[in-house]
Amino acid sequence: MSGYIAYLVFFLIVALTYSIVVMGLNLQWGFTGLFNAGVVGFFAIGAYGTAVLTGPDRAELIGGFGLPFPVGVIGGMILSTLAALVVGLATLRLREEYLAISTFGIAISIQLVALNFDTLTGGAQGLTGIPRPLFATFGSPGAYNLFYLGLVATVAAVVYFGLQAALHSPWGRLLKAIREDETAAASLGKNPAMVRLQAFVLGSTLMGLAGGLYVGFIGYVSPMDFLPILTFQIWAMLIVGGSGNNRGAIVGAVGVWALWTMSGFAISRLLPVEYQSQGGAIQVIIIGLLIVLTLLFRPRGLIGEAQSVSRHVS
Amino acid sequence: MTTALLQVSDITAGYRPDLPILHGVSVSVSEAEMVTIIGPNGAGKSTLVKAIAGLVPISSGTVSVAGSNVTNLLTHKLATASIAYVPQTANVFTTLTIDENLKLGASTLSKAEGARRIAMAYDNFPVLQKYRSHKAKVLSGGQRQTLAVARALLTEPRLLMLDEPSAGLSPLMVSEVFERLKSLVSTGVAILMVEQNVKAALAISDRTYVLAEGRNRIDGPSSELAGDSQVATIYLGAGGRKR
Amino acid sequence: MLQALADGILTGSIIALGAIGLTLTMGILRFANFAHAELITWGAYMALGVLAITGVFAGPIGPFSFGLPLILATLVAAVLTAALALVVDYLVFRPLRSHTNHMTVVFSSFGVSLLVRMVILLIFGGSAEYYSDELQIAVRLMPGLRVMPDHLFTLGLTLVIVIALHFFLQRTRLGLSMRALAENPDLVRINGIDTRTVVRWTWIIGAALAAVAGVLYGMTVQLRPEIGFQLLLPLFAAAILGGVGNVFGAVVGGLIVGLAESFSVLFIPAGYKMAVPFIILLAVLYVRPSGLFGGMRGGAK
Ligand SMILES: Nc1ncnc2c1ncn2[C@@H]1O[C@H](COP(=O)(O)OP(=O)(O)OP(=O)(O)O)[C@@H](O)[C@H]1O
Ligand SMILES: [Mg+2]
Fold first, then answer.
1. Which strands, in side-by-side order, build the sheet including B22-29?
2. Which of A11, B231, C127, C215 is the one with CA 20 to 30 A from B53?
3. Is residue A200 in a domain?
4. C-alpha distances in angstroms, A213 versus A46, A74, A163, A217, B155?
């Protein structure tokens, strides 16, 4: 396999992993109107949860249960679900801003735990040597990556079709009804806060799932992989792809991740060493501009389908 | 009484561009005239007064006051156009005191003039005087209505628009409010009033418009409509269950 | 113990200053502005920029580490911060306000916060900066309690600003219009008041307060592009704890958050200090979402 193709495979694995996060966020924002300002937190919980459950036993660590990968991922998802319940139960009956603020808070708290709870998370070093599922079965890293791409693509496809089915089920129609006229839905005996909670929690669970897949692929976790900027990147993917549109979510994930990596390459090639840190800032500014300008001028997204599913695109 | 004080001509308006609520509604009010608008729930009565007040966008048709065009008026210029408006709901600031509510109503006036008129309002409505430093949320429904009207009159408007001023009032209070409005008309103020209390409305107003499903249905001198069987039909026919 | 108390009050008064501006804009303009923290950073750096450009050096006043130049620089910074807030409101928030989902504005403020932070990083670089390299001598108030004169100044200034703001909101026409706007914007317009003017003044006041908070923070700690980002959660916690829109509440909330942070190190590792505001926030939302003193509008929808 030539270097380029190997890189492309690597790139797609990461992009498709993120696309699962974006679909989770789309359920929250695009279809329910809930602002999650701490996406990275739920992603990180899934990743750390998986790492702790599947990692090798080490004397100085609490975790390292060496459980099978699927068990680890499910465990990570459950942890993300619990975290979502904690903030969701506190806020979903209140003003919508409070959910945003709380999710922002939980992401920061999770980052602190990752950095400081050394015996569980490995602190700043993180946890290394997390087994990659079925790694021994494949002869070469290249073949393994191809396999993993297939795995992530399959999971992303399952999530995509699962979400589409859910959105067209009675539950999905209820979600839509609540979005369009909360009072009317409430008068029909539905509990809007409950339905919103379900959507929020399910979205966060998907973020946890993506976190588990991410760990399985790179084989370690460290706080550096879960910086707040990731929340903005995921948001940019959603907004660019067009919120309220799951196909757009996938396209947005790949597109924005491509833009991010390419701008990173360009900066590392073109900018002199002493300006590299400013280069990083420029990269982030591109993300910020993408979000704000798309909201202002292309509220339906840049590359998503034109058809409007979301109420934000009136 | 040649040109109307308020002339609403053939307006289309709604909360969303793709969903008009009013379809070509026309209404006129002359100087010192009392006009009521009646109609079943959801007929668009409130939407009509809101559109005149610039709170709901008008997509076609015109509104003019004393001959000058005020279509899609910026709401804060109502007072300049000599109009005062009391909405159907949330028509006082419950978190502010009575006094502060009145001060806000006088904010287009000079401080001295505002103070003078607020003092007059307290004379006219003693109940407000009594609670002047209380938050308006302690007021009863009728007292709130009084405060809202007192506030609206501070700018000495030529046209007063009231959206269901009798809602939630006891029959005794209703007749008191209507008496007060009548005496206001006799001082030269024109009134455009939305009412659910059809009988009382027809009894005291000069002319009445019946609105249903966002369209003019019948209008004419109130005394004539009072005996009109069609008015009742529109109410029942359009599914209204009101008195 | 005593020292933790003093430190807590200092951090608390800075949080309080920032939270006043946030609670005002949250209550009156009805949205949680994630970019408020970046107004704080911007204000702090603008003052630094003014100091650097003018290069005026006059000695510090009395026991404080700063002199007239920093005070002037703060005034300029307040103006520049207000300008930034007005520009952002005009370019971003105002066009999005008409959206059916008002969270779109909140989300856009999230994007704006990132942009402002990165622009500051580009202009000023990422390393820590200081307004002055004067060494300050701590004053010993009693055994076991030393405070910097600057810190006392910060506390005093917070109190002065709160009282002034209270009178402004209670006694002036503009203040009255602001409180009214928090309850019912349409009715404010019906009363003949141009809400756009009131909105503009709310931004100006909120941003100016943010700038002052930024300078005080920079004076007592150090300047980094992330200071606002790190303050955001404490600010929200303080504003919600005190009741959104409630100025006194924001001050009490700020002090509680500051004290809780500084006392927390007695019980939990210092690394978790930043999570304390989140715990407080969650507790408030579960137990008493309208805040300790109730807000201009309640916490419920
Ligand atoms: N803020 C709003 N946004 C969208 N639609 C609205 C809004 N307010 C009213 N409507 C719709 O406009 C239509 C007319 O409402 P309007 O309030 O004008 O009726 P009304 O004649 O005043 O009724 P009522 O007697 O109950 O006060 C209704 O179908 C209503 O659902
Ligand atoms: Mg009505």
1. B22-29, B6-13, B58-65, B68-69
2. B231
3. yes
4. 9, 10, 18, 6, 67
Question: How sure is the predictor about A308, in pLDDT bands with cuts at 50, 70 and 90?
Answer: very low
CA distances from B29 to B5, C7, C11, C62 (A): 6, 68, 62, 72
Three-state SS at B27: strand
Q: How far is CA C244 from CA A164, A206, B118, C247, C290, in A?
A: 39, 33, 31, 8, 7
User: What fold, for B4-88+156-241?
Assistant: Rossmann fold (3.40.50)
pTM for this structure?
0.89
Domain of residue A43 covers 3-227
Cα A21 → chain centroid: 3
Residues 6+ away with beta carbon under 8 Å from C36: C18, C21, C22, C25, C109, C206, C210, C232, C235
Size of interface A-C (CB pairs under 8 A): 143
Please write the tens of the pLDDT for every residue from C216-229: 888 888 899 999 99
Task: Please list the residues that pair with B27 across neighbouring strands.
Answer: B8
Question: How far is A243 from chain C, CA to nearest CA, in Å?
Answer: 12
Compute the distance between CA of residue B111 and CA of residue B99 in angstroms, rounded to an integer. 14
| Domain residue ranges in chain B | 4-88+156-241
Q: Is ligand 1 within 6 A of the CB of residue B51?
A: no
The structure tokens listed for C140 are 């010993």
Listed residue (B25, A282, A19, A48) closest to C118, CA to CA: A282
Q: Please, are residues B86 and B180 in contact by the beta-carbon 8 Å criterion?
A: no
Q: Do B104 and C183 touch (CB under 8 A)?
A: no
**Is A192 among the domain residues?**
yes
**Which DSSP category does A29 fall into?**
I
Residue C143 has what pLDDT?
A: 73
Residue type, C60: P
pLDDT of residue B236: 55
Q: B242's torsion region: left (phi>0), alpha (psi -120 to 50) or beta?
A: beta
Beta carbons of A246 and A19 less than 8 angstroms apart: no
Task: Kindly report the number of other CB atoms within 10 A of residue C67's CB atom.
Answer: 17
**Beta-carbon contacts of residue B173 (< 8 Å; ≥ 6 apart):** B142, B166
**Using a 6 Å cutoff on CB, does residue B45 contact ligand 1?**
yes
Give chain A's mean pLDDT.
88
Substitution target from C114, C115, C230 for chain A, most A beta carbons within 10 A: C114
Q: Beta strands of C32-126 (E only): which ranges?
A: none
Residue C50's Cβ-side half-sphere holds a number of Cα atoms within 13 Å equal to: 21
ipTM score of the complex? 0.91
Q: How many domains does chain A have?
A: 1
Averaged pLDDT for residues B141-169: 90
In single-letter form, the type of residue at position A291 comes to I
Give how far Cα A137 sits from Cα of A5, A69, A133, C202, Å: 21, 15, 9, 64
**Measured distance CA(A190)–CA(B118) in Å, rounded:** 48
| C-alpha torsion sign, points C180, C182, C183, C188 | positive
Atom nearest to B47 CA in ligand 1: 18
Q: Domain residue spans in chain C?
A: 2-126+136-287
Protein fold of C2-126+136-287: ABC transporter involved in vitamin B12 uptake, BtuC (1.10.3470)
What contacts A12, CB < 8 A, 6 or more positions away?
Answer: A149, A153, A254
Rounded to whole angstroms, how far apart are CA atoms A212 and A73?
5
Contact status, residue A160 vs residue A23, Cβ threshold 8 Å: yes
Q: Is the pLDDT of residue B137 over 60?
A: yes
In whole angstroms, give the CA distance from residue B48 to residue B58.
10
CB B154 within 8 Å of CB B106: yes
- Given CB atoms, is C168 within the 8 Å cutoff of chain A? no
- State how far the Cα of A242 lies from the Cα of A295, in Å rounded to an integer: 10
